[in-house]
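Q: What does the assembly look like in three dimensions?
Context provided by user:
Components: two
Sequences:
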Amino acid sequence: MAEATKVHLSFDELVSLLEQIFLNNNVSATNARILALNCASCERDGSFSHGVFRVPGYVSSLKSGWVDGAAVPEVEDCGPAFLRVNANNGFTQPAFLAARDQLVEKVKTNGVAVMAVRRSHHFSALWPDVEPFADQGLVALSVVNSFACVVPHGGKKALFGTNPVAFAAPREGAPPFVFDQATSAIANGDVQMAAREGKQLKPGMGVDRDGQPTTDPKAILDGGALLPFGGHKGNSIALMVEILGAALTGGYFSSEFDWSTHEGAQTPYTGQMFIVIDPERGGNAVFQHRVAEICDLALDAGQERLPGDRRHVTRALAAKDGIPLDAENLEKLRTLAAG
Amino acid sequence: MAEATKVHLSFDELVSLLEQIFLNNNVSATNARILALNCASCERDGSFSHGVFRVPGYVSSLKSGWVDGAAVPEVEDCGPAFLRVNANNGFTQPAFLAARDQLVEKVKTNGVAVMAVRRSHHFSALWPDVEPFADQGLVALSVVNSFACVVPHGGKKALFGTNPVAFAAPREGAPPFVFDQATSAIANGDVQMAAREGKQLKPGMGVDRDGQPTTDPKAILDGGALLPFGGHKGNSIALMVEILGAALTGGYFSSEFDWSTHEGAQTPYTGQMFIVIDPERGGNAVFQHRVAEICDLALDAGQERLPGDRRHVTRALAAKDGIPLDAENLEKLRTLAAG
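A: Here is the predicted structure of the complete assembly.
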């Protein structure tokens, strides 16, 4: 079996290439830069289901008119520790970045602050949204709801999105502790990748269009649905994400928006919630040291690896050797960039 | 098989009985009232593993000198939206209740606030801590770490506590949406109850002293350990609870405190973290309506019941008929109350 030929790009080269693709698809210069950095970061870290794999989805959704690539977000100050952002039907990342500095200022002043983003499309991984807060010494928790593709525990009808939860905390002497996990038993991007590669899934990941358990990713994508992770407990977290990501932000529930009139639309139109905390507030100067301690204790107790660690290894490799891309994929990206 | 004879007590009768037991065991009047209300509420709602079942554990821990029933908590204002509370080796409930009004004021002023409790013993369910915030129209998230009885996913050595996460949100026309769930595959109290009743557990709940899977609750309690729920994802949440409940509060990790010098000690000496949000901040007056909507949608999609609903049914029954207690158990409680 022949391995696909790999071509290595520097991070900046990949960002420029992606930026041009976004610019060619009615994305504003500001937003194109943000989305390109985000997508390239995922690819660089080995988050492949949210890296260049997503480019056709971005382009398709932009072409459909479903998402506004040139949207200008509106930031609303709702009190000393509360910001709301209306993404105005644009992507979430430019929306929360427009409010980010103000959020950090609020956290530093008050000890904690909340940012609630609505009318927003999130089409990437969640870790890039929280990790930078930990790089600044802050603790961040974020949730985003998506599109109905998960049946409630014991149910038959898709209601929840994959509804990921991401958490980041600074760690002494090491990259931040970061996890980013879907509340579905598997991420939707991973089902798509398995379908594309003709692989079967493990049991317990999803149901077919009749609500019956299946291991076939195509049956899940073709009218079936995913299951929540961890039974009724994961289900409760998925429901909490709808409450925080949509009810609290003023965004749509995962089951609520109608993209059927926009053929090719792929980006969920929902909301995103951030809670950011200053962990050293009150003189707790040992916080980062304590995070390092509990991480080391987990490894010592037999936990194979910490979430996020594989990304940091992949990132370090990419810094040395460049980001490996399939030659064929790269050609497609270059064609899209040529316009 | 003979059913145990049931005696029905009013809520107030049960509170008085429990209060006297705490008073007889070196608990201050203020703290005895708080603990009695908490324990009676659990029994009333059918949270049996945290109801009167816990009384011998409370008494044993108090007698051992491990926990200070007369502790006076110290509240520290750490900024506009951040409170710290030192429970001074007392129970958590009196500690956070000492700061509760101030916390709510901070939430109403700022939109969100954090309360970090340390040097505290939590020996009850977590839902009683968050539900009252939702009764006031607020959203509350709380975590508490406990004592090392959960092996990390893929590991062999107990490191995490059962580390529950509780969440409450107000819901229009219905009791609040509340969940309270251990990040272990099963709650420790439920393992104790199964052991007492001679029942086997479902597979996947725990390991024996050699780290091998077992369904015997006694093997889990006798040097074995629980497993996290939901594999590596539940594991990450358990680790987050250590970070928020201990590293951020300044409390001990679940694996860190040494109670071996206090024979009979049963109450974990850790920390507890609260994040409380004003969901209507910024003019989002439909929040409670939206929570009701997503709950109804979940039931409509086939979810059997919502977390917390069974408690509210049991509570309503208790309001009508009183709280049913085994006659034999009640006799033991009365003996303890007689002193």
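Follow-up: The two ends of chain B are 33 Å apart (CA to CA).
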